[in-house]
Write a structure and sequence with these properties.
The complex is a heterodimer of chains A (97) and B (390). Chain A is of the alpha+beta class. Chain A is 20% helix and 12% strand. Chain A is globular. The N and C termini of chain B lie far apart (60 Å). Classes of the chains: A alpha+beta (97), B mainly alpha (390).
Chain lengths: 97, 390
């Protein structure tokens, strides 16, 4: 109830189970608990929770995870269209930590 | 990412001196702020140094774990977007407590808000803090840009001489650095293994006490009411220029009417027009973040549009009872298009501040929302102008 969930069936996250070595790094770095480990293999448990930050792919030593990462920011998209090129984030207004 | 090409200073300042403030150009912020380069302003942001620690690799300044009034004021200032892009600490190695070569190394960004969050959660502990040069940007955003990245870690390790400072080969990174850092690459290139700590620095003490094990809960990013509230000031600041221009234009356009233009009408209708516009804008910047979980739909543009519709409906209810808010029926129709369009556009831009929107999702919602917002805004403006002649 009143959960913050974004649009379904849209993210570019892919997991190649054959390459997975079950190290669990993807599950560890994901801030939205997208992955779970089952029988020493990673599984995408909550795909729609993915925000395409790219942490999982970047930290997968086996190269089993791929995602087209980027900033989910409308202002960045507009800036990308106006200025040309990829959407770039110009600010740092997410909660600092 | 390329290694930083900016002017490099020594990682450890001479004994007894505060680290020199970074003076290299900051990346320009697309949110309408100009980076401040005043030396004095940056220098004041340096954390309070209390003594130094001597190591094999030189002397390391020691920082307090208590935040002073100036740190709180600085945080408040940064939250309002005032000289936020220069609210940074000098990249390099710092000490907390009385660290030894066996003490932990915690890696942080050189945005002072991030650095302060970290050190204030290390009270009573002995540790090293390695502040990366993230150009004064917080951990998560810097990781997204790649400035909090593998290359910078490798480079900073060498610059501060970490291998001579500590005897172990372990780095503790905030979990939100993971989009920029490849743990196995760091290990391969430096011999240091990376341990990802919890998302929030507040959970760091529990993480360290549990033998560097993060609970599932502390691995999740949240977006609580408080998290959303602290973002509102900088949202307001970022929009300020655009809003001022549009408000001024609408104020002047209020004078349009029979006889083309009249200053009397500007005085009569201008304040109300500007108020309605500002109301719609504040609906998008303030009400949308606060009411985010309760507004219908998943896309931010829909949430914004609903909030805008709610706002203009409330105004209409008020007008029915008290009158005088809108100039005629066309004006009512105009505002029923304009307010949702404005709130929708502004609300849509809050995706950039949210902690859970994906780029693919934002692109999908924009493809639908931006054309509708444009049509509503143009139509609304047209009706509003035509209505002034009737």
């Amino acid at each position: 109830m009143f959960e913050l969930r974004y649009l379904p069936n849209v993210v570019t996250l892919k997991l190649d189970s054959d390459k997975c070595i079950g190290c669990g790094m993807c599950a560890e770095v994901c801030p939205h608990a997208v992955f779970t480990l089952e029988n020493k293999r990673a599984r995408i448990a909550d795909r729609d929770a993915c925000m395409e930050c790219g942490a999982c792919a970047k930290n997968c030593i086996a190269g089993a995870v791929s995602v087209k990462s980027g900033v989910g920011c409308a202002a960045a998209v507009i800036r990308g269209i106006v200025g040309g090129g990829e959407p770039t984030c110009g600010c740092s207004s997410t909660p600092a930590n | 990412m390329k290694q930083t090409t900016a002017k490099e200073s020594v990682g450890r300042p001479p004994e007894g001196q505060q680290p020199e403030p970074p003076l290299e150009d900051k990346p320009t912020c697309g949110c309408g702020q100009s980076p401040s380069k005043t030396k004095a302003a940056v220098h004041n942001d340096a954390p309070r140094i209390e003594g130094v620690i001597r190591t094999e690799a030189g002397t390391v300044p020691r920082v307090k774990t208590e935040l002073d009034l100036i740190d709180h004021l600085g945080a408040w200032r940064a939250r309002w977007g005032i000289r936020r892009m220069s609210y940074s600490v000098q990249p390099g190695l710092y000490a907390v407590g009385n660290p030894t070569p066996q003490s932990l190394v915690l890696v942080s960004a050189n945005y002072k808000l991030s650095f302060d969050r970290l050190r204030s959660n290390l009270s009573g502990r002995d540790a090293w803090i390695m502040a990366l040069d993230t150009k004064g940007i917080n951990v998560w955003c810097a990781a997204g840009k790649g400035t909090f990245g593998t290359d910078e870690i490798v480079h900073r390790l060498e610059t501060v001489g970490l291998k001579d400072t500590v005897s172990h080969r372990k780095l503790v990174l905030p979990q939100l650095a993971a989009p920029g850092v490849s743990a196995h690459e760091v290990k391969r290139r430096t011999g240091f293994s990376v341990v990802y700590g919890p998302v929030r620095a507040e959970d760091l003490p529990a993480f360290l006490d549990a033998g560097m094990r993060a609970t599932a809960e502390t691995r999740l990013i949240r977006f609580t009411l408080y998290d959303r509230l602290v973002l509102i000031p900088v949202e307001l600041t970022n929009w300020l220029l655009y809003v001022a221009i549009i408000a001024a234009a609408m104020f002047i356009l209020s004078g349009v009417g029979p006889g083309i233009f009249s200053f009397g009408r500007v005085v009569d209708a201008g304040p109300l027009t500007v108020s309605l516009f500002l109301g719609a804008f504040l609906t998008g910047t303030v009400a949308v973040p606060i009411l985010l979980p309760y507004l219908p739909g998943r896309s931010f543009s829909l949430k914004g549009a609903s909030a805008g519709l709610l706002f203009v409906s409330a105004m209409q209810l008020y007008a029915w009872q008290h009158g005088g808010l809108f100039d005629g029926r066309l004006s009512v129709a105009a505002w029923f298009l304009l307010a949702p369009a404005v709130a929708s556009f502004v609300g849509m831009n809050f995706t950039g501040s949210s902690t859970y929107t994906s780029l693919s999702g934002v692109l999908r919602e924009m493809r639908v929302a931006v054309p509708i917002q444009t049509v509503c805004a143009v139509l609304g403006l047209g009706l509003w102008l035509v209505g002034r002649f009737i």
